[in-house]
Amino acid sequence: MKQRPRKRKGVAGPNIPPGHPDLLSIKAGDMPWKTTARDFPLQAYAEAISKLHARGYSYADIAAWLNGQLAAQLGHRRIGRGQVYRIYRQWLRDMEDGGRGIPTGHPAPLSDEVAEAQAEIADRNLAESEREERPHEFY
After folding, report:
1. pLDDT per position in the chain (139 positions), as tens?
2. How many distinct structural domains can be found in the chain?
3. What residue numbers bound the domain in which 59 lies?
4. What is the per-residue DSSP string for the chain?
C-alpha cells in the first residue's frame, strides 16, 4: 500500500505579535497604491504648478493640464488634484525656508484624502472669489 505524502506544515512567519509596528509596516508595504501616478516625479514640476496657481488656475485645472502635457510619460497613470495641492504646499514650505530644508513647524505631509479634500475646498473658494469679482455676470 502506497502512503500518501504528508501535508507540509506552513513555514512559520516572523514571531511578531499582532498590532506590532514592524508587522503593520510589512502589511502596509503589501497594500496597493491608491494614486495611480504615485511613483511619478511630480516634484520636478513644482515651479510650473506654482506659476499656474499664481495665474488663478485651480488644482483640478492644473492636474488636467499636467495630464495633457505629460500624457506620454504618464501612460495609463493620472495625476490628481490632491497630488498637485500637496506639491504646491510643499513648494510653499520650501520657499519659506529658502529651500534649505529647515523645518518650519509645519505639520507632516498630507494624506491623499486630506490633500484631495483641501484641494476641493481651495478650488471652490477660488471659483467663489471669481464670482464675487464679476457680480454682473450670471452663472
Report:
1. 667 766 655 544 557 777 778 777 777 777 665 555 666 778 888 899 999 999 999 999 999 999 999 889 888 888 889 889 988 998 898 888 665 544 444 455 667 777 788 888 888 887 777 666 655 554 4
2. 1
3. 34-133
4. -PPPPPPPPPPP-----TT-HHHHHHHHHTSPPSSTTTTS-GGGGHHHHHHHHHTT--HHHHHHHHHHHTHHHHTT----HHHHHHHHHHHHHHHHTTTS----SPPPPPPHHHHHHHHHHHHHHHHHHHHHH-TTS--
